[in-house]
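[User]
If only I could read backbone structure tokens as easily as an amino acid sequence. I have put the entry right below:
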Amino acid sequence: MNLQPDKKSQKPPDTRIRLKRFDQQGEEYRVRLGVYASWFLFCCFCLLSARLWYLQVMQGPYFRAQSERNRIKSIRLQPYRGNILDRSGRLLAGVEPSFNIGIVLKDAGDIESLLPRLEPLLDESPMNVRMRLVAAKGQPAYLPVIIKRNADWATVARIEARLYELPGVVVEVAPSRQYPYGKIAPHLLGYLAEVSLDQLKSGKFSHAVPGDLVGKYGVEARFEPLLAGKSGFKRVEVDAKGRMVRVVDVKLPRTGQDLSLTIDLDLQLAAEEALAGRPGAVVALDPRNGQLLVMASSPKFDPAIFANGLSSEEWKALNDPLLTPLVNKTIQGQYAPGSTFKTVMAAAGLNEHVISQYSTFFCSGSMKLGKRRFRCWKRGGHGKTDLYKALVQSCDVYFYNTGLKLGVDRISRYAFGFGLGKKTGIDLPGEKSGRVPTRKWKYRRFREPWQKGETLNYSIGQGFLVVTPLQLARMISAVANGGTLYKPEYVLGRPAQRQGRVPVEPQVLAIIRHALEGVVADRHGTARKCRIPGLRVAGKTGTAQVVRQSKRKQDEKMAWKFKDHALFVAFAPVEDPQIAVAVIIEHGGHGGSAAAPVARAVIERWLQLRSPKPATFLERTASADRGKPRV
């Protein structure tokens, strides 16, 4: 009997049971997935709630302020710069409102699409516009980059009419420097130029922001904090397109303080007119207190061009190595004083008793020392010469002999004593000290001992000796006032500062003043062209060689740059000195013919101002051209 079950008769397992088990497992998975999803959503909700709480509660004040800034716009109000006045209150440098056009990069969007629409409206070189944008790299994007200063009405009108299509472009009203009398005393007044980012980082101009004009030369630089004033602001509400809806708040700027100088406008104009553009300098002081009456350096420059940015041609002209327009030659020009130094030599010789006013030397036209012959300017010589004649006719041989008697050490001591070889202390940057040579100085410089021939050159203001025109003016002031050296002062109201006395007895200075009067008044005097009827004037001419005599003989028709400098110092009136003048004309030839007439023009104008009813500059201009000067 077959007990094995029949395979065909066996039934398969029930699949329904397995499906039921699968459904039970799937339900468990769905439940778990739902739980996980719920937790995930709950965590996301918690994170989102925390973030919203952080933004609304913790950072709420910050974002409210940001929102307020989007609605309220703050506009900086620039202060008006202080005026610069002459001693009589006449305006030398003032301020007028002008229009600046700028771009706020934060609001401009795509600058490359903006510039093609903007540049045709500016009447400005596209290269200049792009250079200004490059130069402003690094400044805050919310401050406007000034791309055109002092825009005219036509340009402003074109820009204003199209502001709706020029995002980020702004037209600002800003103060600008104006010069009613043109290029008057630019080396003293200085100029304004845009502050650089490096200067802002240095902290020197803490009151300024990028784009501001600050003083960078002369009085403008020296008194920048005083003249600049303090900025204000205006807060305005704007709409979504940036248009002003209303003014919320205004804080007016504080105008800079005015500054009165000791300069006399009429005398300054007389000096600059007399120079007539020739390279040189004129300085006039009041010998009673050291106040600066004239500071003229030529050639001049236009201070207004620095505010608008210089072209390459303008910059090249300002840096001409021969004419040096940017150099203030009154305090930075260093020249051999020539025969004007004979004033110091005469004082030293008399005070040291190596000569007297009656001592004589014979001048044959030259003096021999060793194998070398030192010439006098007068080829035929002056004959028998005493001190008066030596100063009046500027005899070189007389002072050669005096120099040998004094020696280099005593000459240097008196040169220093008259204020040469050291800065005068005037409150202006860049003053040069000049040079008074000594034995020690020469050995340090050249490792050579001092030679007697160098003493002869020294005695007539040549060789290693160099001075500034301001030093010469102070030197002749001390001779005029009886021996007091004053610190030159150009700010009105400051007290006079005495810096000492020249090491000379009063009677010695009296002898020299008498001789210097003869330089102008005597019929043989070298400064006869400085005579002024009714006024006693004293002075001393000088001619400083630029090249050696041997080279001069090779070419009598030498180039202008090799010709002698012309110098002249003077004071007036002799009986009561109130003005002292020093003049140098570069490569001008003889002091008596080139420099003395310039000093005469200044002193004549001073004399006219002392008359009961002097003609003012305005009256003279009006009578000449029936017009008024620019104001």
Summary: DSSP finds 23 helices and 21 strands in the chain. Residues 265-298+326-617 form a domain with the Beta-lactamase fold (CATH 3.40.710.10). The first strand starts at residue 72 and ends at 77. The first helix runs from residue 15 to 58.
